[in-house]
Amino acid sequence: MSTEKRDGIVDGASRIVQSRAPASGVSVPRHLGAGSDLAHSLDYVVMLQVMFNLASGIECTPVAVWQQLQQRGIRSAKDAKELVGRNEVYEAFGHLTDAGLLIGGVL
């Protein structure tokens, strides 16, 4: 949590807000892990990143997720020598939407 300070004194009118911190875990429903809704492994990686972002209050757009996956060193399914591509992540978002796991861009 944080609050505002001026000259070392807490402002009595300041709001207390929760700090942004990564979620320590997310729950995945059984049908997602054992079902056949998703056929590509990257779909699961993208879905988990989206779930962690939402649980942590972190920006969650296809571009943000792609950048996060690249920062994590996630490799392309098409060429393991390359980092995951933007189009691959966009396709995974499409698969999540087609499977009904993302509705209007929201899990």
Task: List its traits.
107 residues; globular
- Low-confidence sequence ranges: none
Proportion of strand residues = under 5%
Please give the radius of gyration in angstroms: 18 Å
Major sheet: arrangement of strands: 1-2
Coarse morphology: globular
How widely separated are the two ends? 26 Å
Query: Could you tell me the mean pLDDT?
Result: 80
Please explain how this structure is put together.
- There is one protein chain.
- The protein has 107 residues and is mostly helical.
- 41% of the residues lie in helices and 4% in strands.
- Strands 1-2 form a two-stranded antiparallel sheet.
- The longest helix is centred in the middle third of the chain and has 16 residues.
- It is globular, with a radius of gyration of 18 Å.
- The two termini are 26 Å apart.
Can you describe this structure in just a few lines?
The chain is mainly α.
Q: Topology, pairings included?
A:
Blueprint: E1 5-6, E2 9-10, H1 30-34, H2 41-56, H3 62-71, H4 86-98
Antiparallel strand pairs: 1-2
